[in-house]
Amino acid sequence: MSKTPKSRAHQRTREDHASELAEDYVEAIADCIDAAGACRVRDLSERFGVTHVTVIKTIKRLEREGLVTTEPYKPVELTAKGRSLAVASRKRHEIVYRFLLAIGVDPKVAAVDSEGIEHHVSPSTLQRLKAIADQHQM
Prior knowledge:
two-stranded antiparallel ribbon
């Protein structure tokens, strides 16, 4: 068992959960912009299976955090900070996905599982997952 005090471990988990939604949204916004040239509230509503109102509330939070900009009836844009977070999140996601494939997880299951795991992996663990995934890729 780790020597990390339980309170520190739980604190990290709470922090991971707090950033999870922002990471998912900026990654989705980046995907939409890359695929279609723009991202609208309805795109996010459809992707996440939530209401238009839920997306608008989340976008307002992301705007306060400096991750996106938007105006009524206009597409959602990523700031430089938002784009950077999207790139980092996408990279973590890809590493976790490749690791799961390397250990024999079915690709469909790996795609779903990597969506959650990516948010809770420490940099040192991610580095080890990448090393294993890279070895398997050879």
